[in-house]
Amino acid sequence: MLPRFFDIHAHVNDASFDEDRNNVLERMRDRGVWAIMVGTDYKSSQGAAIMASFSESGVYASIGVHPIDDKKERFREPFFADLAVGPRVVSVGECGLDYSRLGDTNDVSTEKARQRELFETQIDFALAYDLPLMIHCRDSDKALADAHRDVIAMLVDKKSKNSKLRGNIHFFSQTIDIAREYFAIDFTISFTGVITFSDEYNDVVRLAPLDRIMSETDCPYVSPVPYRGKRNEPIFVEEVVRIIAEIRGEDFETVRVALVQNALRVFNITTHI
């Protein structure tokens, strides 16, 4: 059985769900929502993998190290390798570059180099295990697109050496021109509940090819309308799908089915059903 909706980036492994995690998962099952639980360090990646392995069909895991959540965290390949062979681990990340807080560091060039090294290690790991990337990317200034430019340059270089490289840019927050650079190297982008209360990304939602976009919540953060102010959870992804269809002027059912199929394709989940 296929899902009705797919939240490709969730953090139900987060501590904010400790008291009612099973209820959240039950609501997902009742509403036909599948989701990928995303790690940001080894501990949360391990938690995501364990949750996926012990849950019923519809819960998957992504393992990786976030660029700035804990700057002391390293991608310890032997430990992550043990997780990568899990039957429901479907991607590597969230990993990438985040230049939004460069003002907090004394040496910008050193900090950028640290992030690029951490990201490159995870790109190579994803290629070694034939897994897509779950990429986090945030610029110091949207107009500069500096982090995205660096991510694209790194991906283009790696793609030229290994055509298997693929993945998704989660919580996409750039222009359609930047999006098209990702599409050109066979990457997709995904949207959160932000698009239900901001029209800043309407052009991207409208102009992106339907087979290149996906839906996510990034829960417990950025709850969509009409749940603003409440803790976000995977079942709210339906509102993201609804607004995508509305912005595009397309039939809701057509968009719903397409986004599910995109998730299954990008994360090769048909082999795990």
Automatic annotation (TrEMBL):
GO cellular component terms, semicolon-separated: cytosol
Name of a matching Pfam family: TatD_DNase
Source organism, top-level taxon: Bacteria
Keywords linked to the UniProt accession: Hydrolase, Metal-binding
Cross-referenced InterPro entries: Metal_Hydrolase (IPR032466), TatD-like (IPR001130), TatD/YcfH-like (IPR015991)
Gene3D superfamilies registered for this protein in UniProt: Metal-dependent hydrolases (3.20.20.140)
Binding site for a divalent metal cation 1: H9, H11, E94, D218
One MF term in the entry's GO annotations: metal ion binding
Binding site for a divalent metal cation 2: H136, H170
NCBIfam families in the cross-refs: YchF/TatD family DNA exonuclease
Protein name (record): Hydrolase TatD
